[in-house]
Write a structure and sequence with these properties.
By secondary structure, the protein is α/β, with parallel strands linked by helices. The protein contains 8 helices and 6 strands; from the N terminus they run βααβαβαααβααββ.
Length: 199
């Protein structure tokens, strides 16, 4: 059985300030760096065999903290990037509400958003899940794969891999900075949820 760990990056200044990041390339804050230092040894204890990461700096730097402990190379995949939030990127929730009240309310309810250049959830789910499934299929049975990625990307990919309706993503709750979702995979039973929001 393969273990796939979806590890959300450490905190950034935009996370702290309540700004939507999406695919804007924001670095880890000092708090984020400390979160990585605290979390990486716990993930190292799982004895990972494969490390993959979004190519955005905050995820890449998060994964670098683990790579230094387990002496493994990191493969970067742009498909593991966060959802593209279009015109919302860099704005706070009140700023978005003031300009796109109906669309933002739909997003908060987990419903489709069809304006402001926001990436469709279906496209997000498919691209992230495809990257993760390819990594699992390429790894030997019993591999432990740690994928450094982003909150919405991880949540929607989890639903896609488990075969859950897209509406279930909001029931998972937000994945906190430097927390992880653990999924198990085998060729007989397919995907199973093991844990969510592991510190």
């Amino acid at each position: 059985m393969t273990l796939l760990v979806l590890w959300r990056h450490g905190q950034t200044a935009w996370n702290f300030g309540g700004r939507i990041q999406g695919q804007t390339d924001i670095a880890l804050s000092e708090t984020g760096v400390e979160q990585v230092r605290a979390a990486a040894p716990r993930l190292a204890a799982l004895k990972p065999t494969v490390l993959i990461s979004s190519d955005l700096q905050r995820a890449a730097d998060t994964q670098a903290g683990l790579a230094a402990l387990v002496d493994l190379p990191v493969r970067y995949d742009a498909r593991l990037r966060e959802r593209n939030f279009g015109d919302w990127e860099g704005l706070t929730h009140p700023e978005i509400t003031a300009r796109w009240p109906e669309s933002f309310a739909r997003w908060r309810r987990g419903e489709p958003v069809d304006d402001a250049g926001v990436e469709e959830v279906d496209a997000l789910s498919k691209r992230v899940a495809a990257a993760l499934q390819e990594a699992v299929d390429a790894a030997p049975e019993g591999a432990v794969i740690v994928a450094a990625t982003h909150g919405a990307a991880a949540r929607h990919a989890t639903c896609a891999l488990l075969g859950w309706p897209v509406e279930f993503a909001t029931t998972l709750g937000a994945l906190h900075n430097c927390h992880s979702t653990h999924l198990l995979y085998d060729t007989v039973r397919g995907w199973q949820m093991a844990a969510h929001n592991v510190p």
